[in-house]
Task: inverse folding
């Protein structure tokens, strides 16, 4: 299947700082990328959907000013957690979709720890 | 609305045992159904899928059949291995193209 990468795989930051997470589709063009958040031993919760060149669509309850999403090209989307706080600590997973059947391929995830 | 319910874990089995992880769904229309697997510290990988009623998805010895009459998509494997230890997520894709996940079922296979 298609390959989706995320960088970094883990990050530790101080409270109040901003953190950027990259999601790349390595061997296909992703017309749509999705960002999920996963708490320990829980399911994935969709945060937002982004289409290349347009603004992201956020799910209810997700603060768009706190979780900035940019999808500037067909192979790259970024999620910036602004002014991070300990409650933002989580596992963030992106997926990318494109091609004939628009199947989603998932990245390996980024573990964010805010001290 | 759309939702997916999985049996609670953790599920602990001995190697070569038979596995069933139950999954039921609620949806409008006719969603596609999926099973994803997440190994420790990794992202999700698609295990199998079915796009219409009575379809059977299969991969790596795992199977699941799309049952419209019982709104179910139970995951089965005849003989599990230690390497199958992971968290398994059932999911549906709704009419808007979004994936809706169940809560996940942790499987632990002991040698």
Result:
């Amino acid at each position: 299947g298609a390959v989706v990468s995320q960088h970094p795989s883990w990050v530790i930051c101080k409270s109040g700082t901003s953190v950027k997470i990259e999601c790349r589709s390595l061997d296909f063009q992703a017309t749509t990328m999705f960002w999920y958040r996963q708490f320990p031993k829980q399911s994935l919760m969709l945060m937002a959907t982004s289409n290349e060149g347009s603004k992201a669509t956020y799910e209810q309850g997700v603060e768009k000013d706190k979780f900035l999403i940019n999808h500037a090209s067909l192979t790259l989307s970024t999620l910036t957690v602004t002014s991070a706080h300990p409650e933002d600590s989580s596992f963030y997973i992106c997926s990318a979709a494109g091609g004939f059947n628009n199947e989603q391929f998932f990245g390996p995830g980024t573990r964010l720890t805010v001290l | 609305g759309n939702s997916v319910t999985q049996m609670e874990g953790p599920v602990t089995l001995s190697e070569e045992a038979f596995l069933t992880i139950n999954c039921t769904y609620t949806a409008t229309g006719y969603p596609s159904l999926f099973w994803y697997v997440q190994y420790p510290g990794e992202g999700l990988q698609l295990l199998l899928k079915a796009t219409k009623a009575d379809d059977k998805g299969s991969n790596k010895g795992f199977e699941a059949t799309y049952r419209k009459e019982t709104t179910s998509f139970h995951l089965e494997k005849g003989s599990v291995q230690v390497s199958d230890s992971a968290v398994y997520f059932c999911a549906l894709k709704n009419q808007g193209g979004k994936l809706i996940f169940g809560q996940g079922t942790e499987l632990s296979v002991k040698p």
